[in-house]
Amino acid sequence: MARQTVASASTEPVRSMTGYGRAVDESGAGRCVVEIRSVNGRFLKLGLKLPPRLGALEEKVKAVMAQRGVRRGSVDVGIYLDDAAKGQSGYAIDVETVRRYAEQFKALSKALKRKSAPPLDTLLNLPGSVVRTEAEEDLEGAWERLERGLSAALEAFDGMRRAEGQAMAADIRAQLAVIAKHRTALLELAPAAQRAALERLRERVQKLLAESGNSLELGKATLEREIVMLADRMDVSEELARLESHLKQMNAALDAGGELGKKLDFLTQELNREVNTIGSKANDEAVTHAVVEMKQAIEKIREQVQNLE
Q1: Across 256-262, average pLDDT
Q2: Order of strands across the sheet that contains 19-25
Q3: Is the dihedral of CA 255, 258, 264, 267 positive or negative?
Q4: Residue 298 burial class via C-beta count within 10 angstroms: exposed 0-12, middle 13-18, buried 19 and up
Q5: Ranges of H-type helices in 112-236
Q6: Considering only CA atoms, which of 246, 250, 300 is closest in space to residue 273?
């Protein structure tokens, strides 16, 4: 029992690369909204959308994403944070700019020989007359709020990826069981098909000899040598042994969990290679049927593996 506990503690969850998570945190002075979405990809492609004033926090966001196990996929993170200095921000009149505008109006009025002066509100509506004042950003306080929202969004995001990953792993196991069942059947079917093919060869040769009146120069040793060579070409015992090894490795990888998409993708290619070889050697309807069933299962596995982290 203790051994099983240690083994289970060392495993990691199987995750899908597709997921979505959103969180709204209003526990602080303002409101923080974090939205995370991802689709499958060969490598990690992380896109961050942060308010420009919080650009210095980008590396911290990436570090948290890495710590929470985001390793593969095309991941987009959108972050909205209320202005931490909202209460201290405002607008101010740029007196120097307004004064220059007034001087230009005065010079223009003199040139046009007009005595009217522009109203003050006209001057204030001109570009640069009124400016927004920003308080210095409190990055430490902003990070505290952002980190809470990011953690909550990652929790939802990871929960979806785990749920989808478990469903995919269950389907992959089911397809591996289908392949294992047909492999077991082939352990009996293949040798029987091989013997039947060799017997048909002997019968055809004997018929040919009989029709030729035994005039063909074909000795018994030559015939047996050809039969041995044909038997060797039809032997699929090595392919079946490697197939069993690949099945065990894939099930073990699913048991271990973690980042296994690339490994399973490689093993799926190896499964397909062995089954194709068995199919090319087969000269039997039952064997061909088993090969077709296994190839269908492999294709289903390939589709699922492409979405695993």
Answers
A1: 89
A2: 19-25, 32-39, 73-81, 44-49
A3: negative
A4: buried
A5: 120-124, 139-211, 220-234
A6: 246
**pTM value > 0.70:** no
Residues 173/57, Cβ–Cβ less than 8 Å: no
Residue appearing with tokens 């002075």 = 29
Residues whose CB is less than 8 angstroms from the CB of residue 274 and which lie 6 or more positions away in sequence, other chains included: 239, 240, 242, 243, 246
CB count, 10 Å around CB of 194?
22
CA distance 75 to 122: 49
What is the helix, strand, coil percentage profile of the chain, to 5? 65, 15, 20
Query: Which of 258, 255, 279 has its CA nearest to residue 172?
Result: 255
pLDDT in tens, 90-132: 678 888 888 888 888 888 787 877 777 777 778 778 887 777 6
Which amino acid, one-letter code, is at 267?
Answer: L
Query: Out of 3.80.10, 3.40.50, 3.30.230, 1.10.10, which CATH number does the structure's domain 2-82+143-158 have?
Result: 3.30.230
Q: Strands 90-93 and 130-133: what pairing?
A: antiparallel
Cα 6 to its chain centre, rounded Å, is 29
How far is residue 221 from each of residues 204, 217, 226, 227, 274, measured CA to CA in Å?
Answer: 17, 11, 9, 10, 33
Main-chain dihedrals φ then ψ at residue 90, nearest 5 degrees: -175, -160
The domain segmentation of the chain, as residue ranges, is: 2-82+143-158, 90-133, 163-305
With beta carbons less than 8 A apart as the criterion, state whether 43 and 72 touch.
yes
